[in-house]
């Protein structure tokens, strides 16, 4: 099977599973398969960009990115959500075998999926360049423009609360910017770009807070 066909089948599998499981839990809060699928697409684009720059295996990285959140809606609740990587790897393995991936290729992809949440898989596997990239790409999208809207959507009409939360957030973002926390150099570069944008945006918002005062004599 051509790599392109395999990737297409993986994308189809993930999209269908996200929408299907989300539909079975409709009515619960935060069930948004469209966001999860769009996030998956962006993570895949970031992952491919990093893989090209870092000389990683492009197909294995692409497959890992596409599949990383496949079990997102299968693991409701905060504690269970930590398992969505490990469960996702279990869901992906039969598909990868069916698509003709060699055991070591399937192992590489499954490790990326399993470990992307907290660096832990429930099977033995060394850390790979591809797994670091999947995790980097995931984090890069978590610090994008859309995530600002999503993070503060419920606070947007609470100026005090909003600006207070933003000031706190700035401290965290500046720490991340200082610490270079991604697993690859290209990952750090793209992540820093996201951080610089968010930091600039929040600094502007706080400057507007400082302007929100009456004229002094
Ligand atoms: Fe995830
Ligand atoms: Fe993700």
- Low-confidence stretches at least 5 residues in length (pLDDT < 50)? none
> What is the CATH superfamily of the largest domain?
Hypothetical protein af1432
Q: Provide the succession of SSEs.
A: HHHHHHHHHH
Shape category:
globular
Q: Write down the CATH class of the largest domain.
A: Mainly Alpha
CATH arch. level architecture of the largest domain? Orthogonal Bundle
In terms of DSSP E residues, the strand content is under 5%
How many helical stretches? Answer: 10
Overall structural domain count: 2
Number of strands: 0
Q: Describe the largest sheet.
A: none
Oligomeric nature of the chains:
single chain
For the residues shown, what is the average pLDDT?
96
- CATH fold-level assignment of the largest domain: Hypothetical protein af1432
Please report the distance between the alpha carbons of the first and last residues: 76 Å
Structural class: mainly alpha
Give me the Rg, rounded: 19 Å
- What small molecules does this complex bind? fe (ii) ion
Helix content: over 70%
């Amino acid at each position: 099977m051509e790599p392109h066909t395999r990737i297409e089948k993986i994308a189809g599998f993930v999209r269908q599973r996200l929408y299907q499981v989300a539909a079975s839990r409709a009515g619960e809060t935060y069930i948004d398969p469209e966001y999860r699928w769009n996030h998956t697409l962006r993570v895949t684009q970031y992952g491919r960009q990093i893989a090209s720059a870092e000389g990683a295996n492009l197909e294995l990285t692409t497959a890992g990115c596409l599949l990383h959140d496949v079990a997102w809606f299968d693991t409701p609740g905060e504690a269970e959500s930590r398992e969505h990587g490990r469960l996702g790897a279990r869901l992906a393995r039969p598909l990868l075998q069916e698509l003709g991936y060699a055991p070591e290729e399937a192992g590489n992809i499954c490790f990326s999926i399993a470990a992307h949440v907290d660096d832990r898989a429930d099977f033995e596997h060394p850390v790979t360049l591809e797994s670091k990239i999947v995790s980097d790409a995931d984090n890069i999208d978590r610090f994008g423009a859309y995530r600002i809207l999503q993070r503060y959507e419920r606070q947007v009409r609470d100026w005090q609360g909003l600006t207070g939360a933003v000031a706190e957030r700035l401290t965290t973002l500046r720490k991340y910017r200082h610490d270079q926390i991604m697993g690859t150099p290209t990952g750090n570069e793209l992540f820093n770009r996201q951080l610089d944008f968010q930091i600039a945006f929040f600094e502007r918002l706080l400057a507007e807070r400082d302007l929100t005062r009456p004229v002094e004599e």
